[in-house]
């Protein structure tokens, strides 16, 4: 099992926490309710961590691509410049997806 935060796992934890909390309300179990709330908080935290990590990884790709693109542009290497622009665009897309 990976220790990296995962948006999907965080959403799953949040969902199971909501189900557990509602089950606790239906059965009158304050223990189930509080455990459900704890799962929700854990899931929301993991999802937020994964989004931040994805955003920072995207930012690194964007900056790296921009620097490489500028370098290859100055050197006149249009093929490598285009590859670097692709890396920059990938980073921008990842940043947008993780806002």
TrEMBL record:
Entry superkingdom: Eukaryota
Sequence segments annotated as region (Disordered): 27-50
The name this protein goes by in its record: CsbD-like domain-containing protein
Species of the source: Dimargaris verticillata
